[in-house]
From TrEMBL:
Descriptive protein name: Probable DNA 3'-5' helicase RecG
CDD domains: DEXHc_RecG, RecG_wedge_OBF
A GO term, aspect molecular function: DNA helicase activity
SUPFAM superfamilies per record: Nucleic acid-binding proteins (SSF50249), P-loop containing nucleoside triphosphate hydrolases (SSF52540)
UniProt region (Disordered), positions on chain: 510-531
Helicase ATP-binding domain segment(s): 290-463
Gene name, Swiss-Prot/TrEMBL: recG
UniProt keyword terms in alphabetical order: ATP-binding, DNA damage, DNA repair, DNA-binding, Helicase, Hydrolase, Nucleotide-binding
Superkingdom of this protein's organism: Bacteria
Domain Helicase C-terminal: 486-660
Keyword DNA repair attributed: yes
One Pfam family in the UniProt entry: RecG_wedge
Annotated organism of origin: Micromonospora fulviviridis
Phylogenetic classification of the source organism: Bacteria, Bacillati, Actinomycetota, Actinomycetes, Micromonosporales
Length: 733
């Protein structure tokens, strides 16, 4: 091990030894001094402050700070030898039993009542008691035998703030603390990359002080200042990346597509059977202005389920067609692409019948391109697209394939953008001679901080009004395990709606036998619950039981494309009473006559998914009803989540709830590449003001120095925090 000053690039094996460095690398992906210094504590314990043992979940890998209360030795029943049971407490009244098997008298001497320690292991339960079997531990204060005496760095923290690190079974938190202490003793922090003016105006501590205090805080106040500075660095790096991308996009040339008075768009508006909401009109004006400029539009259109995004997108497409270009809409599923195709043909009427008898004078054609098209139909469609007669082209991933060529692609619309990778969107954009205008749509409302942090390079438009004629949706939780009679009542309620001439959905988390697909919930969870119910199993049971005599159809992603389309057409035409389906109906499916949805095993779905699903009912003049069937018990987190969904139809409130309950790294794409997130401290829920301030500073800095040429250290820091792979993810809007 070296005594030379350590920098962020110094390999850990030079500082902590080969064996420990290997463990840090293989279990925690930490290879250099910089990796370790930026491996921040997950929390801080304080002797005398309890960890709240009562809140620990069975199966959780934990590290607790606790005090030994008593010890007891008793013979083991099944084999020779003694069992040592040590009871520890956290000061809150919560107790935890530590169990050590075999004759370990030295542990009894070491774990004396009154001693404080850090204890790490997996929580189990035996006869109603929480316990850790054979936990790793380190004792604080008073010296002691074994490992406790060797851990001087932990002694130093005793009575102060004790960092508890994200750890692994093979590398407990106190080993990490020891390694951090060794590194900090020789660590030379990098030059501060943050401009001095920003540090001063935002009252931020220097990087060296922040990195020391976050690991070895001298006080709670200094720890707060350290965390604030390091959070700022993360927020600032992301915002600079997004603002730079937005700045570069604005400098790109694009073909202007101004509105044409008396063209297709005006004709379409004149034949619309209803009036646009004020929100649709306002967003339409924003998009029209973007399309008329010689720079590519990059706009995100978010709107509640049923708020009329498709009509807004169609009007934008018609403006581009009026200007001599073509527009393509990329949909995630064939069901949705076909639904868009039918819907647009109905709305456009003679305006979409170019070349046919009775077509409008300046009509265009609307073509559908999917993977299931027959050879002759595909050739015909591709010819229409390549020769420019099809002004509007709708499709799935099939649009991205080689051989799909456009005459003059002017606008790309991506529906449900979270279903597509950046490479797929770029593949479609690459089919244009010049960068096309891009409109991405989502029916999943986005909390403000997520919008700033993930979609900050896009202009954002929001539709919050529902069109006239839309009906309210009532949602209720059906506790099937506690009150089976409520489930019987749910099926009777469905039959009542069908008797009135309406239709219904029954949604299941799983298809049935065969490999799991993207539209399915996990088949089993860590608690070993039964697999979620499946469409192919539920449909025949319903047909023979509570829904006997009703016309039932089945829809899921494993059906052949022509069969899926036929089922959807039958349901839309009213030839089926009930559609038993997976989440393939989650987006885009529009059957105004459907008034009731029963979601089975509703606790297997996410908050946003449930909100999307129930948006399939109440799309006509009759009120909608969504029944969330669950076996989750009252008071459980799953039940509380369903109660929250049932209590509000405000998608933005539910999006905040979804963010609270999901790992934020998943929202930001930390799992996109299987690598750990670069945003270690920043919270999209708690750091709204900091993110907003960082964005303001990023805009000001990029305006005066677009490529950060005058701030090379900052540019390097941004590149390290937001690497290329992550930058691509951030561009995914």
């Amino acid at each position: 091990m070296t005594s030379e000053p350590a920098t962020v690039d110094t390999p850990l094996k030079k500082l902590v030894g080969e064996r420990t460095a290997k463990a840090l690398a293989s279990h925690l992906d930490l290879h250099t001094a910089g990796d370790l210094i930026y491996h921040f504590p997950r929390r801080y314990d304080e002797r005398g402050e309890h960890t709240d043992i009562r809140s620990l979940d069975v199966g959780e890998q934990v590290t607790v700070l606790a005090q030994v209360q008593r010890t007891a030795v008793r013979p083991m029943r099944q084999r020779r030898g003694n069992l040592l049971e040590v009871t520890v407490g956290d000061g809150s009244g919560g107790l935890l039993t530590l169990t050590f098997f075999g004759n370990q008298a030295w542990r009894e001497r070491e774990l004396r009542p009154g001693r404080w320690g850090l204890f790490a292991g997996k929580v189990t339960e035996f006869r109603g008691k929480r316990q850790l079997n054979g936990p790793e531990y380190v004792l604080l204060g008073e010296g002691g035998d074994g490992e406790a005496a060797a851990n001087e760095e932990v002694e130093e923290f005793a009575g102060a703030l004790i960092p508890v690190y994200p750890a692994a079974a093979a590398v407990p938190t106190w080993v990490i603390a020891r390694c951090v202490r060794v590194v900090l003793d020789t660590f030379t922090p990098p030059d501060d990359p943050l401009p001095a003016t920003v540090r001063a105006s935002r009252n931020l501590v220097g990087i060296g002080a922040a990195l020391r205090e976050i690991h070895r805080p001298s006080s709670k106040e200094e720890l707060y200042r350290a965390r604030r500075r390091l959070k700022w660095d993360e927020a600032f790096a992301v915002q600079l990346t997004l603002v730079q991308r937005k700045h570069r996009a604005a400098a790109c040339p694009a073909k202007a597509r101004p509105a044409k008075p008396g063209g297709l768009l005006d004709a379409f508006d004149a034949r619309l059977p209803y009036e646009l909401t004020s929100g649709q009109q306002a967003v339409g004006r924003e998009i029209a202005a973007d399309l008329a400029t010689a720079h590519p539009m990059h706009r995100l259109l978010q709107g509640e389920v049923g708020s009329g995004k498709t009509v807004v997108a169609l009007r934008a497409m018609l403006q581009v067609v009026d200007a001599g270009g073509q527009a393509a809409l990329l949909a995630p599923t064939e069901v949705l692409a076909a639904q868009h195709h039918r819907g647009m043909l109905d709305l456009l009427g003679p305006l979409a019948q170019a070349g046919e008898l009775g077509a409008a004078d300046d009509a265009t054609r609307v073509e559908l391109v999917t993977g299931s098209l027959g050879a002759s139909a595909r050739r015909r469609a591709l010819t229409e697209v390549a020769e420019g007669r099809a002004g509007i082209v709708l499709g799935t991933h099939a649009l991205l394939y080689e051989g799909v060529d456009f005459s003059d692609l002017g606008l790309v619309v991506v529906d449900e953008q979270h279903r597509f990778g950046v490479e797929q969107r770029d593949a479609l954009r690459a089919k244009a001679d010049q960068p096309p205008h891009v409109l991405v749509m989502t029916a999943t409302p986005i909390p403000r901080t997520v919008a700033m942090t993930v979609y900050g390079d896009l202009e954002i438009s929001t539709l919050s009004q529902l069109p006239q004629g839309r009906s309210p949706i009532a949602s209720h939780v059906v506790p099937a395990a506690e009150k089976p009679a409520f489930l019987d009542r749910a099926w009777r309620r469905l039959r009542e709606e069908v008797a009135k001439g309406h239709q219904a959905y029954v949604v299941c988390p799983r298809i049935g036998e065969g490999p799991a697909s993207d539209e399915e919930a996990p088949r089993e969870d860590d608690n070993g619950r039964r697999p979620p119910v499946a469409v192919t199993e539920v449909a025949p049971l319903l047909a023979e039981g509570p829904l006997h005599g009703l016309r039932i159809g089945v829809l899921h992603g494993r059906l052949p494309a022509d069969e899926k389309d036929a089922v959807m057409r039958s349901f839309a035409a009213g030839d089926l009473d009930v559609l038993v389906a997976t989440t393939v109906v989650e987006v885009g499916v529009n059957v105004p006559n459907a008034t009731v949805m029963i979601v089975l095993d509703a606790d297997r779905f996410g908050v946003s998914q449930l909100h999307q699903l129930r948006g399939r009912v109440g799309r006509g003049s009759a009120a909608g009803l969504c029944l969330l069937v669950t076996e989750a018990m009252e008071g459980s987190p799953a039940r509380e989540r369903l109660d929250a969904v049932a209590s509000t139809t405000d998608g933005f409130k539910l999006a905040e709830l979804d963010l609270e309950q999901r790992r934020e790294g998943d929202v930001l794409g930390a799992t996109q590449s299987g690598r750990r997130s670069h945003l270690r401290l920043l919270s999209l829920l708690r750091d709204t003001d900091l993110i907003r301030d960082a964005r303001a500073e990023a805009i000001a800095l990029v305006e005066e120095d677009p490529e950060l040429a005058r701030h090379p250290a900052l540019a390097a820091s941004v590149a390290a925090l937001v690497d290329e792979e992550r930058a691509e993810y951030l561009e995914k809007g």
